[in-house]
Amino acid sequence: MSFLFDLISLQFIQGPTFLFVYAGLMLACGIYLNGLRQGLRRSGIQEIPRRELNPYELAYLRDGGRRALATAVLQLEAKGGLQVDHETRPAPLTAIAGYQSEDPLEQVILSQAKPSVTLPELMCSPSVQGQIAALQADLQARNWLIAPERIRRVSKRASLALFCLAVMGLTRFWIGLLHNRPAMYLLAEVVFMFLAFWHFFSILPKRPAESDDYLEKMVRERSALAATARANPDALKSEDAALALALFGTAPLMLSLLPAPTYSSSVDHGSSFSCSSSSSSCSSSSSCSSSSSCSSSSSCGSSCSSFSSCGG
Amino acid sequence: MSLRLGLGVSWRAQLALSIERYPQLGFVELMVEHFPSHKPLPQAVLNLLERGVQAVPHGLSLSLGGAEPPARERLREMEALARRCHAPLVSEHLAFVRARELESGHLLPVERTPESLEIVLDNLRQAQQALSRPLYLENIATIVDWPQPTWEEAEFLRLLVERSGCGLLLDVSNLYANSRNHGGDPLEFLSRIPLERIGYVHVGGGVEHDGIYHDTHAAPLPSEVIDLLEELCALCDPPGVLLERDDDFPGEQEFLEEMAKIEGAVRRGQRRRVEATV
Lengths: 312, 278
Description:
Low-confidence stretches of chain B: none
Number of strands of chain A: 2
Number of strands of chain B: 12
Mean pLDDT of chain B: 96
Oligomer: heterodimer
CATH superfamily of chain B: Divalent-metal-dependent TIM barrel enzymes
Distance between the termini of chain B: 26 Å
Largest interface: A-B, 15 and 18 residues
Order of helices and strands of chain A: HHHHEEHHHHHHHHH
């Protein structure tokens, strides 16, 4: 057993030399994993000929399913397919009789909005969740989003490297303590390694660089829309409101679609809502912890792994 | 090269989208106090500049009519904005807004006396020295006026412009407001100012409260202001005409209607001027 620990912690290398070897190993792992991380970003958009993204696809890219659905609702309102009562919170959404749509997500929303439905109710609808999942899969297939299995692969390799280096370092530290040897530099190296790995690999990119460039260009070109949406949202036409919500998540445009905040002395849930099921929950802040899994309609998509945090 | 600005709008975030989509946009006016030099210009403004839209810094707080000289820091801010947006000119009001440390919060009228004229000329000289662009002076709307002025407003403006070499930013709405509140014929005013020194023209809406007309820039353009603009354009060819809207911001449709009113008045005035010369 002792031989195993000695082997793991490279006891045949002298202490000061080990510090350098350990730092070298950390650096090598970091370079390798950073290469993998960069590789994720270079996925490239394969779609030829390139089809422009519609507002709710843009919304999904920016912030996930919840924003995509709200955008699709405003888009339908702009097209005259949906009546949205912005005076009530959450706004009741009612399909306009006779309006037809070719778009699958719009079709599902329209079918749910008879007689009327709210955005939180739509979010919980299995058919809407199914469509949002299909939207996510479509964006992944078109390389606008990185496939979750690719993210998981990098995440697993990073976890493995961290685990191996941590076992080696901590074992050596433990043996050092047993033999009354100074091991504080080693401990500092181990702590540094944890912090560096956490910083670089806890959040892995979910979009390739091309998607980010595209979004950045859209945001830059539509900055007048952002300014007006923030300062004077009531003056926007419905189609502009949909695009503003998609790109900038303009709060006033989203507010009427969500329930009014309720205040209680114990826990303030704000405008959050949840689609209760045993396995998934979504909060209005669209983030999930590493221990929870998200439904396909949350902004977390399906790329939550133990080594990655989610959210737009 | 002669100055040509075209049709413009005072840039406000609330109107950014309408402004960006207005096809005939020639220039925007940027309030110096809204764009401090330590902050980057909004991307929406940069997009306009990239598109070739001109920008004119417009000051509120130089207090050129005040007893103290204009603050160096404020002049630096105006100059910095002018450089950042490659402005062809800068403009400020003929007013005072502070006395020592006391800020009025309003544009206050300047006493039209020989002493006051010298003070304003001195302030103008200092401002012109600090600025790399030509300075244009705007007539303000007043609710009260100094008693027993030596000169009428038009004369005072003419003297200032002639002796300082600065240009004139003629606010037609202020002219209308003053003629309505204090009396006087705005057309006679136009005949007494150096029209060839006009850099651009302001137009904006206002409301009447208790018999006093307030140039609030928060209402649609009144037909009287549009008519006065037409009269001005029948007399001269101002390089630019700009809509001011500071509150109760219109939607895109109403904005386009306001701009159409201005366009129409300019076109009608130009037609009359051409017909008169033929």
